[in-house]
Predict the 3D structure of the following.
Amino acid sequence: MSSQEPIFQHILQPTWQQMPAVLHQRYANRANTNDKVVVDGVLNVHVSRWMKFWSPLLRLCGALLPYAGKDIPVQVCFQSFPDSDHVGFYRTFQFPKQGEVKFRSRLVPVKGDEVLEKMRFGLAWKMRYAYEDNKAKLLHKGYVLCLGKLKIPMPVYLILGKAYAYETATSDNGFDMYFEIIHPLFGKIFGYDGSFTLTQVEAE
């Protein structure tokens, strides 16, 4: 992968060229740089009773949000690292009662179109990226525990369910975002949806 080529251009081949310009910018981070992409928007956040029950453990692992709400202001920063092909994924939510809530993870390319979203203690969501039906999709491939180079599958489907997400362009500098987790027994247990605007794209 060329140092001048965005990390996700390689991951999303051969459909990268079909994507609109706003998604090219959204996924513009390059490896081994200090590139930064910032988007601002509002999200509606859904948290079921099932997910609230597991909230203390998930918060300990730095995973997901404990609060629900409508039209929650959110800023997301995608930060490259000068020594790797990882991308920092930093969300800041502004809840009206609970105040500022931050959720930090790291996107780690694995092979081909597969990516891990790593959280605290090595917990990770394994996904496949694809651009289909005018959407950049994140398709569920399970959960793993990362211990050094080992990636151990975690049979937690009956607790965490199956995740799915997509982003779709709405303008030259805006896109909609949708994320959900579906439990095999309880249906939708977590999710958020809303719109974002690109506010900063720095190539360094």
About this structure: The mean pLDDT is 91.
